[in-house]
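Appendix B. One record, verbatim.
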Amino acid sequence: MKRIDQFFFFLILLGKIASDCHHMLLIECSEKLEIL
């Protein structure tokens, strides 16, 4: 059960980053993903 919760949290985190990417350059977006 715990692993599923972490999986959904990760999806929400990726969704937030993806929405942030709409307001940034593609290079900045890729740098942000590399931090993860």
